[in-house]
DNA sequence: GAGGACAGTTTCCAAAAGATACCTGGGTAT
DNA sequence: ATACCCAGGTATCTTTTGGAAACTGTCCTC
């Protein structure tokens, strides 16, 4: 029974949980790729590129667990599995896009800051 | 020289870098705490609570490296170190707040989804 | 009946993140 | 003098994350 590190800030808990989810390496890419329409597992894998089955599986499980993505099994022969954003997941698109827009627009500024930082600190 | 895993999606690179930075355990808390005014190291540490020196140090270094936070050393005796958001860092406040608002507003929905998920999958 | 697509699972492994604890070295209060 | 504040640094440990590769098992095509 460790005395849970008490974070004074109540903002911490849900915010950290969200950032944990969408901060994982592939989840935002998955969400963005599902915006237009639902996709099958290997469609997603191909579309994203560079992701292993395991990583994609666990990413999808996490998003599914949090109710952001829905796993739709169509019991045809052979069964077909599609992944789609839930309504809740769709409400995340706006904040995520705000963030990705920022990242793209300020990419140069961040890279410049990094270069400057390294110039000042590696030079020593 | 590893042949960098090439991600087809060009959105990936800057977005991943940003999420890497702000997805780290304490960085959003730091940014939010610096919104009103600059703070000293131990002020931040106390205000956030539950963070170790090492984690706070590396968080601040990362934010500084990316040009989001500025480290201001006032050469008084004893020297005094303040951390403040840069103008670039301030532009991140809006997207971050959009995300944190989402997290807080949809906290219940996410928790409900988790409970449902676990009920369905652990039950087996 | 060999091979490949689909949708994974499992095992093993390396790298990164985070926590704990201890050290520095000057300044300040008692 | 002693002990604590500030702003860290270092060393070690555990946990988490992510990647590689192999394996399942059903279906379809050649």
TrEMBL record, chains A, B:
GO MF annotations for this entry? DNA binding
Q: Which superkingdom heads the taxonomic lineage of this protein's source?
A: Bacteria
Q: RNA-binding: present as a keyword of the record?
A: no
Ranges of residues in domain HTH hxlR-type: 12-111
Q: Keywords for this entry? A: DNA-binding, Transcription, Transcription regulation
User: What Pfam families does this protein's entry cite?
Assistant: HxlR
InterPro entries assigned to the protein according to its UniProt record, in alphabetical order: HTH_HxlR (IPR002577), WH-like_DNA-bd_sf (IPR036388), WH_DNA-bd_sf (IPR036390)
Matching PANTHER family: TRANSCRIPTIONAL REGULATOR, MARR FAMILY, TRANSCRIPTIONAL REGULATORY PROTEIN
**Record-given protein name:** Helix-turn-helix transcriptional regulator
